[in-house]
Amino acid sequence: MEVVLLERVEKLGQMGDVVKVKDGFARNYLLAKKKALRATKANLTYFESQRTQLEASNLDQKKEALEVAAKLEGQIFALLRQAGDRGQLYGSVSTRDIATAISEGGFSIERGQVPLDKPIKMIGLYPMSVILHPEVRTTITINVARTEEEAERQERGEDVLAEKTDEEVEAEAQAQTEAEAKAKAEEIFEEGAGPKADDEDADEEAPGNSGETPAEVAAEAKSEATAE
After folding, report:
1. Which pLDDT tens digit goes with each residue over 169-208?
2. Is the dihedral of CA 212, 216, 219, 220 positive or negative?
């Protein structure tokens, strides 16, 4: 099907160009979105009569888009999603999700304005373009994270995926506990095997500390008395 473009269409042509496209693309996109008209004689005549007005309207829309682009450029929008220990999402982030996040941030954006080459399936920071006008694009960043705290850390440039898993943290803590217990046991052993203090020596030399039983001590004392 041949159509006449009412605005610039990327990779297709400029306003006023007559191009040939597939019927489905023409009906479902170009004609449905009012980006083109069938290139009939009547429509071509109509376009020429409206060209000046269409061009003026396009300039106004472009000006508004540039103003929005100046505010939107460089913005970061967080998307919280469930994910595994290694950052794999349980699902994926779509253009609809991104458009919703941007709109909730105060900018009116439709999913068709956010081109996405492939679905996002991992947490992280993803720079991407937003089409505000056929001639105006801006760049934003989508911050996909599991929690708000994690999103803030990613925004600061931290690599949250480099962290240890819960199992690794638990194993490390157990190993540390065992090492501390072993060190303490060795310390106690060394204290018991070391040189005795002076007062300990005195205790061993004092009467009653020879290791003899009370009966043996009494018998020895009696024997000494009889000998005298």
Report:
1. 565 467 667 766 776 676 676 555 544 544 444 444 444 4
2. negative
pTM to 2 decimal places: 0.62
- Give the C-alpha separation, 59 to 61, whole Å: 5
Q: Helix %, strand %, coil % for the chain, to 5? A: 50, 20, 30
Residue 78 has pLDDT above 90, yes or no: yes
Return the CATH number of 76-162, one of 3.40.1010.20, 3.40.640.10, 1.20.58.480, 3.10.430.100: 3.10.430.100
The residues, any chain, with a CB within 8 Å of residue 112's CB and separated by 6 or more, are: 95, 131
| CA quadruple 109, 112, 115, 117: dihedral sign | positive
